[in-house]
Design the sequence.
């Protein structure tokens, strides 16, 4: 390793024994926000609903007339596509 000329001086460097800051975290966050800094603390993702079971993709290409009927029915019944598909299958008594 190349000698950079510091010798043992690095080992003698110690932090100052200053007391902990009396400034609250909230105040620090306010100052940081005013200066454009953002928190590194994780943010919580808001989830509209929890899934009851694992899901899978279902990609189909129905005729536009069938697609429009399905989407309009889902909208009219205030259902998501997965909920609408389940409702139709339940009504058709498909196990």
Sequence:
């Amino acid at each position: 390793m190349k000698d950079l000329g510091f010798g043992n001086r690095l080992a003698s460097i110690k932090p100052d024994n200053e007391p902990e800051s009396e400034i609250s975290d909230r105040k620090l966050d306010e100052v940081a926000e005013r200066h454009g800094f953002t928190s590194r603390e994780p943010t919580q993702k808001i989830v509209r609903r929890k899934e009851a079971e694992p899901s899978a993709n279902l990609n189909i290409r129905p005729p536009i007339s069938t697609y429009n009927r399905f989407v309009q029915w889902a909208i009219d019944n205030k259902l998501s596509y997965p909920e609408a598909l389940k409702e139709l299958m339940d009504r058709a008594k498909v196990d």
User: Anything to note?
Assistant: The chain has three helices and no strands. The helical segments are 25-34, 64-76, 81-91. Residues 46 and 52 are 17 Å apart (CA to CA).
